[in-house]
Amino acid sequence: MEHLDMHHIFELGLILTMIAAGITAIAKKLKQPYPIALVIIGTLIGLLNIPVLEPLKMFITEGDIFNFVILTIFLPALLGEAALKLPFSHLNENKKPIIALAFGGTFLSFIVIGFSTHFLLGLSIPVAFVFAALMSATDPVSVLSIFKSMGVNHKLSTVIEGESLFNDGLAVVLFKISAFSLLTYIDMGMGGLTSGSFEFIKVVIGGLLVGGGLGYGISILTKYFDDYPLEIIFSILLFYGSYIIAESIHVSGVIAVVVGALTFGNFGSRVGMSPTTRLNINNFWDVAALLANSIVFLMVGLEITRINFSDQWGTIGLALLIVLIGRTIAVYGSTLPIKGLSWSWRHVLNWGGLKGSLSIALALSLPGDFAGRDTVLILTFSIVLFSLVVQGLTIKPLISYFGLRAKHSGSKEYEDIVANLHRHEAGIAEIRKLKTQLFVPEPVYSEMLTSYQSEIDKSHIELDRLLEENPALKTSQLITLKKHSLYAQYDKITKLEQEEIISGEVAGKYKEILNNGLADLEETDIVKDSKRTD
Predict the structure, then answer these.
(1) Where is the Cation/H+ exchanger transmembrane domain (predicted)?
(2) Could you give the CA distance from residue 293 to residue 70 in angstroms, rounded to a whole number?
(3) What confidence score (pLDDT) does residue 187 get?
(4) Residues 6+ apart with CB under 8 A from 231
């Protein structure tokens, strides 16, 4: 590629952004998933000869440029934004399926796809397992944009997002070990297995420590400032700093960003951010993530057209079948012991495990002298295209078929009332705090308080009426309340045991009672879910 000056690079970047923003705007207006639209249009632009766009295509599809833009510029922002807004309480409530899929599922997928491609496609061990690592990373953006438009159960969205955040980190670690160290570990025999396991643990734990340490440090730093532009800069430094520091000391940058952002979004927002700061930080990263995703998916479409698929259709078809079977075994195998996860959810989790830009960027990062690089690129690009277009377009009908968008009568009205109650109560709390800080005159304070309290009283009357009209909704809320009560009781028993106020025998007795109560509620939820599905 001929040398391009910075001015020309900026012009090309601006053109790319304009095209991506235009396609995203149209897709959102038509209520269609914008990532899929961007990949399709990007592929068409790549295939068609449009003279005015040729310099842009040549620039973007340069392997080093694509790899740098995705992995260094956009990946920390996308991971950070997703983790920042994911409440730890949501992760904790769904920890069993998330851990099962992110850890057990990723390893199952890696092993099944690795050995299958080695024996069925004749790929060497390093090439087979590099490809397996790439196919074990999932991209939730397309699926979550569909979920949001269809009003799918929030827990299901949390499971898919939680799985993706953590499995991306593991998949990157597995990719690097497979690409650069696997043959060495194999040659070492049992000692190599130990060394490989130690290296994996070191990279993962190192990422956790870097991300957790920086996240905690910057969270504490926000306590000393109430200046949201500055705190937005802190968040940028956290996401990119944790990624770059972790990568420079050869631990997982992806895991560092996720843990750092989770710490900052949960602990930091609680100890050091005002409501104004939280709102502005979230708004900033909403814009950054939309821009990044729009450009990334358009680039994926453009990049796919660089690959020559001719005479490879048989291999591609078999590889696709292996990947789909590997994902199926990973999802159903890892979640089999988990109670409370309906089969309809498992089916959607299976088909919704889309591959995306991370897989392509990692494939392009393989060194030019890596034996089998071209094969990995062809297979990866083909399956990412199939995944985003075919699976992405069919997930919506699948959700409708299983009835996962169905809700109890009155639930939307209930959500509106609850939203109003919470916003007015939050407003009252802030007014009371500001009264002493700003010396607000009593007449002004009382007028605002009376106005908000009136809205709260109205909402309570509407809520009482709605619950009387919809017994199923009342039952659902009662189950949720009982669950949280049992969780709190379990935590209290655990603390009493830790502080040696009660014996382990007595603690065990009450924990068993509480576990049985939770199991009964989970069974009730499964029955309700299956009835909605039927």
Answers:
(1) 18-399
(2) 10
(3) 58
(4) 222, 225, 272, 273, 277, 281
Q: Per mean pLDDT, which of 79-83, 141-145, 154-158, 467-471 is the most reliable? A: 79-83
CA dihedral sign, ordered 456, 457, 462, 465: positive
Distance CA 172, CA 126 (A): 15
For residue 407, pLDDT over 60 is answered with no
The amino acid sitting at 279 is L
Q: Which of 102, 110, 99 is nearest to 323 (CA)?
A: 110
User: Measured between alpha carbons, how far is 145 from 354 in angstroms, rounded to an integer?
Assistant: 13
Three state DSSP letters for 423-434: HHHHHHHHHHHH
Alpha helices in 181-227 (DSSP H): 182-187, 190-221
**DSSP structural state of residue 226:** -
C-alpha 193/C-alpha 102 separation (Å) is 22
Contact 402, 346 (CB under 8 A): no
How much is the average pLDDT of 127-156? 82
Query: Tokens 């100890």 sit at which residue?
Result: 271
The Cα–Cα gap between 24 and 289 comes to: 13
Q: What are phi and psi of 508, to 5 degrees?
A: -60, -40
Instruction: Return all residues near 290 (Cβ < 8 A) that are at least 6 apart.
Output: 24
Q: How far apart are the first and last CA of the chain?
A: 58
| DSSP state string for 329-361 | HHHHHHHTT-TT--HHHHHHHHHT----HHHHH
Q: Which residues contact 262 (CB under 8 A, 6 or more apart)?
A: 83, 84, 86, 88, 91, 215
- 3-class DSSP state for residue 49? coil
pTM of the model: 0.75
Q: What is the DSSP string of 104-133?
A: IIHHHHHHHHHHHHHHHS---HHHHHHHHH
Distance separating alpha carbons of residues 136 and 168, to the nearest angstrom: 8
Burial class (CB in 10 A: 0-12, 13-18, 19+), 77: buried
Instruction: State the pLDDT confidence band at 147, using cuts at 50, 70 and 90.
Output: confident
d(CA 302, CA 60): 8
pLDDT in tens, 425-447: 888 887 777 777 667 777 777 88
Cα Rg of the chain (Å, integer)? 25
Mean pLDDT of 369-397: 89
- pLDDT above 70 covers a percentage of the chain that reads 90
Q: Nearest to residue 42, comparing CAs of 60, 65, 64? A: 60
CB atoms under 10 Å from CB of 82, counted, come to: 24
Q: Which of 43-47, 307-311, 363-367 has the lowest mean pLDDT?
A: 307-311
Crossing angle (nearest 10°) for helices 34-47 and 275-304:
30
* DSSP helix/strand/coil, 465: helix
